[in-house]
Write a structure and sequence with these properties.
Layout: H1 2-10, H2 12-24, H3 32-50, E1 53-57, E2 65-70, E3 76-82, H4 91-94, E4 98-100, E5 103-105, H5 109-128, E6 136-142, H6 153-161, E7 165-168, E8 178-182, E9 184-193, H7 209-221, E10 231-239, E11 249-258, H8 261-272, E12 282-291, H9 298-315, E13 321-324, H10 330-333, E14 339-340, E15 347-348, E16 356-358, H11 362-375
Parallel strand pairs: 3-6, 3-7, 7-14, 8-13
Antiparallel strand pairs: 1-2, 2-6, 4-5, 5-16, 9-11, 9-12, 10-11, 15-16
Length: 377
């Protein structure tokens, strides 16, 4: 165990070279052609660095998934990380990969190509140091996490159900914190129909879809309960045509976050059961829960405390934990198996032009992953 961190610090340059390749292969979620190229590169890296085996899983509409296996054993540990990003093709021309001081910049470097690099080198170091695990590691690289993991969810849940533990290589929280709770996420679409008339000549004959939407927004916002960790956000609205026509249509997109399944049972039926405030308006609501809550169970707590002890003993730092309203594939693995999330890179600016990671601490993060893997019983 004492040798892991020193070995990874010696590989800092090699880690940076691999990270550069990953960042310079753009991989927007919905660009299958670009995703497929990076999928092939990830399979190459997995085999070359870890000596493991890979299987390419064809996916329609997204880059293919890569399933890697490392080691042997009847039991398995599941590691998951996505390689898709929110940045469109061409972003790299505007913001190329670069290193300034101890920071590395580039689209997707924090969320989450830094985490993928840390995971790959954790396995490489375990192999190089001949540290036995007693369990095989199944590593899934998926390409559709940002839009909601619609294609990869069945695979993620299947692998998690066969595993004893799951590790998620999403970016670390503030101060390098581990994420031990994530809210569940719901997505809904609200469409309202009214009746268009001239707003000056025939106002009373009209039915305003925009007015109806305004009333519905007030009701939806009232479902928020901060004490219970529930938020309902109407994040996008549109409707009508011009100012002198009563609006015939309106549209809204709604985001729901819940900390518990019980809150989902309370709120989701109310959202899906919306009725018109104006009986002459038409209301259509669709959607549901996209990701279930990832709860901090006793098993998750025990897994976190083990990681915290390892960080203190071998890496000489305190490993904090946080809960977050953001979701990840950890929401799916936690349905089946104790999960640690946020094991990826230190950094900031996720999904923004300033996205960056702390290059100097990348070996430390990789060492944490390796230590956790080596100590899971």
């Amino acid at each position: 165990m004492d040798r892991i961190y020193d070995a990874l610090k010696r590989q800092r340059k090699e880690m940076l070279e691999v990270l550069k390749v990953l960042v310079e292969h753009e991989s927007p979620s919905h660009n299958k052609a670009l995703g497929d190229v990076l999928a092939g590169k990830l399979a190459e890296f997995f085999e070359e660095l870890t000596g493991g085996r890979t299987k390419r899983i064809p996916v329609e509409g997204y880059g293919d998934f890569i399933r890697g296996e490392f080691g042997d054993g009847e039991e398995q540990i599941f590691v998951v990380g996505h390689y898709d990003t929110v940045f469109p093709e061409g972003t790299l021309r505007e913001r190329p990969f670069r290193v300034e001081g101890n920071k590395g910049y580039g689209p997707g470097i924090f969320d989450m190509k830094g985490g993928l690099t840390a995971g790959l080198f954790a396995l490489k170091t375990l192999k190089d140091l001949h540290i036995p695990l007693g369990k095989k590691v199944v590593f899934l690289f998926n390409s559709d996490e940002e839009p909601g993991s619609l294609k990869s969810r069945p695979i993620i849940e299947e692998e998690a159900a066969k595993s004893k533990y799951a590790l998620v290589l999403e970016p670390a929280g503030p101060g390098g914190s581990i994420k031990t709770m994530r809210k569940g996420v719901g997505r809904f679409t609200l469409d309202i129909g009214g009746k268009a008339v001239h707003s000056g000549a025939d106002f009373t004959s009209g039915v305003s879809a925009v007015n109806e939407l305004a009333r519905q927004i007030l009701f939806l916002s009232g479902l928020t309960d901060l004490e219970k960790g529930t938020t309902v956000n109407v994040g996008r609205v549109e409707g009508g045509t011009v100012s002198n026509v009563v609006a015939e249509w309106a549209h809204a997109e709604i985001d729901l976050r819940i900390a518990t399944e019980e809150e989902g049972d309370r709120v989701i039926p109310q959202i899906l059961g919306l009725k018109p405030c104006d009986p002459k308006a038409r209301v259509e609501i669709t959607g549901g829960l996209n990701r279930p809550p990832y709860r901090r169970t006793k098993d998750v707590e025990a897994l976190y405390l083990m990681a915290k002890d390892l960080a203190a003993k071998y890496l000489d730092f305190d490993l904090p934990e946080i809960s977050t309203g953001g979701a990840s594939d950890g929401n799916f693995t936690a349905l089946h198996v104790p999960t640690l999330d946020g094991l990826g890179a230190y950094g900031e600016g996720s999904h923004s032009a300033s996205e960056n990671i702390d290059i100097d601490r990348l070996p430390e993060r990789s060492a944490l992953i390796a230590l956790v893997l080596a100590n899971l019983k």
